[in-house]
Amino acid sequence: MEASGGGDMPVSVGAGERRMKMKVMVAVDESDCSFHALKWALDNVLNNMTTTATPDENIEDGGGMVFLVHVEPAFHPAVYPIGTSALYPASASLEDLMRKAQREKSTSTLSRALQMCRDNQIKAESIILTGDAREMICQAADQMHVDLLIMGSRGLGMLKRTFLGSVSDYCAHHAKTPILIVKPPEDKEHKKKK
Amino acid sequence: MATSSDSEKKQVMVIGIDDSEHSVYAINWTLDHFFAKNPSFKLVLVHARPSATSAVGFAGPVYAGAAEVLPIVDSDLKKIAARVLENAKQICIKNNITDVVVEAVEGDPRNVLCEAVEKYHASVLVVGSHGYGALKRAVLGSVSDYCAHHAHCSVMIVKKPKTKH
């Protein structure tokens, strides 16, 4: 049982086992920022656990676990740019095609992420969700009771001026689990703006 | 900084602390999860102490007795700051962490924390989700929100769970 509670000291001694098994969720999309966040997580959050034991031991004990979550937008027929139903009498097949393409993209993103975890000898599982990224990520993190939700600060929105994208901002406010927002490494662009 | 660190330079983690239980929870959570064994981070705890004038300013711009109240308010704030720092040090000791910098800086927490990040070249800033003004309706405190947007490093917001599960 976890002895969390009020303002007094939660269990900090003798909880060695609990510390070892950190359950982390990393939200990934196709952006470099989110892969940078994953890399940062693997290097700094999860690798901590593997320094004191052999790799084999850890993989069996579950020295750390990563849930990679990717959210696909839900498709609605109204969104399709091609309006002429005469050319596509069965709108269902167009929807299927788009879903298939979307699914391929998601799978390839997640494979890349899974490979990174494997390269770092960290156990990982991937999850594909459909819907509004903001809500789905928060829900997934809460429902799975992860110790920490990690995500990049900016995703596919290309506004370089903003430090915090809308999904990260929403999750910072609404996720019930602790959340780590990883900022991208400083690049020339940032330096120019200063 | 004469510490016996490994050949690689350690990254710095700054935790913003105040007098609230959210803050205590955040410190404990962070130490449990990041500083248990062979911590790869150097720890810095920063407390932003509001200045006496800003604390009294809430009473309104025209407050005749302000000059008399200021020293009292100031000494209260100093006491609170000392207590916050002492608590923080105790938590570190309990977790066997000796390589830690603890400091109180006067000013607005938003600026103090962002400046601390610059000063220590921190790679992570940790804040609780709420501080003094723990409005029940607010899902994220204003300082945490500001830091998430403006700090030049990664930001970790540690949320205290409302109920046990």
From TrEMBL, chain B:
A Pfam family that the UniProt record links to this protein: Usp
InterPro entries reported in the protein's UniProt record: Rossmann-like_a/b/a_fold, Universal_stress_UspA, UspA
SUPFAM superfamilies, sorted: Adenine nucleotide alpha hydrolases-like (SSF52402)
Domain of life: Eukaryota
Domain UspA: 13-159
Name assigned to this protein: UspA domain-containing protein
Species for this entry: Lotus japonicus
